[in-house]
Amino acid sequence: MRLDKWLWAARFFKTRQLAVEAISGGKVRMNGQRTKPGKSVDIGTELRIHKGSFEWLITVDELPKQRRPAKEAVNFYTEDPASREKREQLKETMRVQKASMPLMASSRPNKKDRRLIHRFKNINNT
């Protein structure tokens, strides 16, 4: 099975084209080496996949004939426990950072905000 098809079937990428772009861009490594989208994947192949700030280190367990639901696609590979732990820690760190940041105000004040601004300006002018 082609690498791009396997990544798409295992639901790492939404489309095969996105999988091809990631492979060509060096975001996917097969057995520690850069590879091409058409390279054949076999059972036992090790893949390192970078997607955004996340990284997976997996071993291929199954070669599906077609794309399956996400709950079934998880059975196509085995993830390294250290990789999973690192990804979970990163996910938690990102969640905490997002929670600690204040919400960005919209660029334009709404009607209520304008009334408050006008009230504030009128009080300060008198």
CATH superfamily assignment of the domain at 1-87? RNA-binding S4 domain
Q: Low-confidence segments, ≥5 residues, pLDDT <50?
A: none
In spatial order, strands of the major sheet run 2-1-3-4-5
Number of helices: 5
The portion of residues assigned to helices is: 40-55%
Remind me, CATH topology of the domain at 1-87? Structural Genomics Hypothetical 15.5 Kd Protein In mrcA-pckA Intergenic Region, Chain A
The strand count comes to: 5
State the secondary-structure class.
Answer: alpha+beta
Q: Which shape, going by the Cα principal axes?
A: elongated
Q: What's the end-to-end separation, in Å?
A: 77 Å
Main sheet summary: 5 strands, antiparallel
Strand content: 15-25%
- The CATH architecture of the domain at 1-87 comes to Roll
Order of helices and strands: HHEEEEHEHH
Task: Indicate the topology.
Blueprint: H1 3-9, H2 16-24, E1 28-30, E2 33-34, E3 46-51, E4 54-60, H3 70-73, E5 77-79, H4 81-100, H5 111-125
Antiparallel strand pairs: 1-2, 1-3, 3-4, 4-5
Helix pairs in contact: 1-2
